Amino acid sequence: MTKSIVVATDGSSAATAAVRWAADDAARRRLPVRIVHVVERWPYGISAFSPPEWQDALADAGERVLTEAAKAAAERRPDIDVTTELVGGTPAETLRERAASAVELVIGNRGLGGFAEALLGSAVLRLAGHVPGAIVVVRTEEGESRDEVVVGVDGSPECEPALGFAFEQARLRECTLRALHAWQVPLHAFMPEPVRDLSGERREQQRMLADRLTPWRDRFPEVEIVSEVTYAHPVSALRDASAQADLLVVGSRGLGAVGSAVLGSVSRDVLHHARCPVAVVRS
């Protein structure tokens, strides 16, 4: 069975941008696109007692949203296969189900009404933490191509799926891949800057990044790689790098500054502050 790229829409400008992004990626991957619109259940979950005309109105509006989204995808990439689906339920649960069998799930960073919660904030993190594969969050603004994909790399095994996704995107786009590792040493409250020589630690961080990239270089020899190790907070470094990127890729789980596991903290902050589309990738 051929997998597809699933993109969620609610008719907002951000959702339309997500549809266009999905269409572009589908053309690169030679895959079909499935556009999904979720009609939320009647308040309090008492769907059996909701007025029939209300449900009919929501369904009609949803069909119009899907028609416009399919039109936007076809205009963007006339050569791709596009299907639509109108489904009732809660956005987070429905999208999680659809994403489980998709190559990737694409959503806008902001939505309309109740759907906004599904597209920005806690619901996105729940999806990223529980759905295998990639979730791409697209912003409304569409700038000119920068010909670069950025991937955040840390010392955890969880960054491997992100590396695989980033290398594949760079290959498909025929662009440069910037592998960025940002690190810091633990700081005492009364010692804002490290006083010891950090050259040894820096060399160790550079060695770690090189080791992480070696097997991927062998698998994707055609991809031009720029390795960057910087002493900075990961969110700040990734945010700055995103300003010159077409796509920023991060894992769904990473390592904190003191080596403790931090679930979603970097991904969450990057989603809010990045200046380009962000892919959160889980194995």
UniProtKB/TrEMBL annotation:
Record protein name field: Universal stress protein
Pfam families the UniProt entry points to: Usp (PF00582)
SUPFAM superfamilies from the UniProt entry: Adenine nucleotide alpha hydrolases-like
UniProt superkingdom: Bacteria
Family to which this protein belongs: Belongs to the universal stress protein A family.
Gene3D superfamilies: HUPs
Occurrences of domain UspA (ranges): 1-139, 148-282
